[in-house]
Design goal:
Layout lengths: L6 E2 L9 H9 L19 H17 L6 E6 L2 H13 L6 E6 L2 H10 L4 E7 L22 E4 L1 E2 L4 E2 L11 E4 L16 E5 L10 E6 L16 H6 L9 H16 L2 H21 L17 E4 L4 H13 L2 E2 L10 E4 L6 H17 L1
Helix pairs in contact: 1-6, 2-6, 3-4, 7-9
This protein binds pyridoxal-5'-phosphate (PLP).
Length: about 350
Amino acid sequence: MKYNRIFNFSAGPGQLPETVLEQARDEMMNYHKTGMSVMEMSHRSKDFLAIFEAAKEGLRKAMCVPDTHEILFLQGGATAQFAMAPLNLLNSQNPHADYAVTGNFADIAAKEAKKYGVVSTSYNGGPDYTHIPVQSELTLDPTADYFYYCANNTIFGTEWHYVPETGSVPLVCDMSSDILTQTVDVSRYGLIFAGAQKNLAPAGLTLAIIRRDLAGHAMPITPKIMDYQIMIDKDSMLNTPPCWCIYMLGLMLRWVEEQGGVQALQKRREQKAAMLYEAIDSSRLFTAPADAFSRSCMNVAFRTESTELDAKFLAGAEERGMKNLKGHRLTGHMRASVYNAMPIEGVQALCDYIRDFDKEN
Ligand SMILES: *Cc1c(COP(=O)(O)O)cnc(C)c1O
């Protein structure tokens, strides 16, 4: 393969499209005749502001973000949002939120929110986290300040395939691992956030999309840097933003457009997931732990019946140029993360290997 690159099935940071990396390389030393790289530019300069605006507009277009919602470029990863969401959205007088705990990250987020208010759990899928609740399995609290869920459970390989109906309770969603892989009706959400390093850009940028009327009520203890309203007022530039990552997001968004937009990427993600689950389901050796209707299109978790065979499979995969298929230490299973930048050929190579391994063992 070009540059001796491999198929990188890492859960995050994920692989980036080759053409995006090539463009970043070509523009590295002298960006558009400015005589400097984007990394060296003032964030207040005309050149950088053009990059910033293009990334923001590109995202607004790609996700059809309505005018009611603001796009923020933040830092601290999804993990900072676990605190920022409750600090801003909880009612200071009677703080109370509702969390659907369908995986490790939702569990961490719920624990963080408990520092600032009362948290009820509308669903808890632990400790196995193989199941995503259907609407009727959620015990919703209609008085909650917001309802929180994690759209795709990166570690356990499960994904919500519908948007929960919560009436007038605002929806807050962690989309770190499936943002920009399918169309989303942003108007249904109060807050969407995502660490960039899976589908958007290198690590260091955090995206937040917030309904404007939900900002401006932060708890008095909220640090300035974690106040959505202040970040809206400052257009994400209270301090130096992650300039290089925002530039890379802009390149990624152009790539998304070249691919045919989010709708085309959604078709591709469904195709890639179908190929992998088909290879697993039709094998003798491999099983997928997630419930059939909860299976993630982004992180395909699978295993054989023995850790020895798993280890043998992983070693063979490396020899074939497929890396980072070992799952999270919490689960013990293997995992293929197939974000937007994973080409069909990578998925095909993995499916072929699964079939060969199944025959030979
Ligand atoms: C990776 C991930 C996180 C953690 O993100 P950071 O940016 O490292 O804080 C949180 N939630 C989900 C769903 C993730 O995939």
